[in-house]
Amino acid sequence: MSQDIYVTRPHLPPLEEFQGLLNKIWESGHLTNSGPYHQQLEQALCDYLKVPYISLFNNGTIALVTALRALGIKGEVITTPFSFVATSHAILWTECTPVFVDVDPVSLNLDPAQVNSAITKDTAAILPVHCYGHPADVDAIDAIGAEHGIPVVYDAAHAFGVECHCGSVLTHGDLSVLSFHATKVFNTFEGGAVVCKTPEMKRYVDQLKNFGHEGETVVIETGINGKMSEINAAMGLLQLNHIDAAIAQRAEIDRQYRERLADLPGIHCVEDSGQIRANYAYFPIRVGPEFPISRDALYHYMKERGVHPRRYFYPLIPEFPMYSALPTADKTLLPHAARAADEILCLPIYPGLDQASLTRIIALLHDAAASGT
Ligand code: T4K
């Protein structure tokens, strides 16, 4: 019986490499609160990602909440309905109101024209997502933010290492937020980061994630505990040694999917959107009406046969109960996002997905097509 295949499997460095770093943590007793590995990882990530300042976090969600808080956002935040629920939850946690606008039907990222038309006197920020690691239309969205004096925070949870026409996509907007969760391209088990443009902002974010402390006896803000531990930081340092090889393996899987699914009517691979360097974080396909069975039928067909794709992102965020009463949650106002949520299926992609597994996944898609004709 062949093993089940999941949408992802975390990349892990060789265990013996980790053991060496653990020994040092045990010797020093420095477990958290900006220890040596934490500081090394911040610098190493700035170098790798080509960004000026990074503040590490214990996860991407707390990093998002802290980023909004650091900019003093109060009011309405224009955002995408087509994302993981953490994007909108961060808006609610900062006591702001999400304003959903539709996505571009091809890139599935926020449509700048829709963002522009949604701006009112109450708009406090724009929170786009680089969905699947495909860059949002950063030039257009940054320009809208600049024109109206509205901060832009990018949820870059999927966009580790992604570069667009002008370098790292993480240098856009006022702040960008990364996730280093186990399911991400670069993982520290749990983790995240805020990418900052100035030393002042980095210092402020560092204070906010450390209870608002400024030194030993002064507390300047109602901060939170968002600190990354030394264990997670050590894992990050090791992961960085392997990241280029891991992304190269993802690229090869992406290439094969595109090539081997090209002749399957009704299956449409979501196109990249303008990245110069991609990270192949996800492999989303759209199951069109020409495919003999529905997206959900295909999802169950595959699961029953031991392959577990995921419907990222279904249901749409506005359908969840804490959002559904908002005036902008009406799905008829979000037709492109609603259609994507009904058609999308993310196929397994991760370093270590072997050739036999890839062939099995692709064969299953062909079999499913044949089963419905
Ligand atoms: N913004 C966006 C746009 C995001 O996508 C996310 C997170 C965030 C913000 C928030 O960042 P964090 O606070 O998480 O750092 C997963 C992740 O939990 C979540 O991090 C991620 N986005 C989201 C898209 O996916 P689930 O509920 O799909 O995870 P789960 O546990 O079902 O895992 C999926 C598959 O991965 C499993 O079937 C098997 C495999 N897996 C998973 C884990 C956790 C493993 O093999 N090992 C593991 O340890 O949410």
From TrEMBL:
The keyword Lyase does not apply. The keyword Membrane does not apply. The active site is at 184 (proton acceptor). It comes from the Bacteria. Belongs to the DegT/DnrJ/EryC1 family. Keywords: Aminotransferase, Plasmid, Pyridoxal phosphate, Transferase. It holds the Pfam family DegT_DnrJ_EryC1. One of its GO terms (molecular function) is pyridoxal phosphate binding. The modification N6-(pyridoxal phosphate)lysine is found at residue 184. InterPro entries: DegT/StrS_aminotransferase, PyrdxlP-dep_Trfase, PyrdxlP-dep_Trfase_major, PyrdxlP-dep_Trfase_small. This is Aminotransferase. GO terms for biological process: polysaccharide biosynthetic process. Transmembrane segments: none annotated.
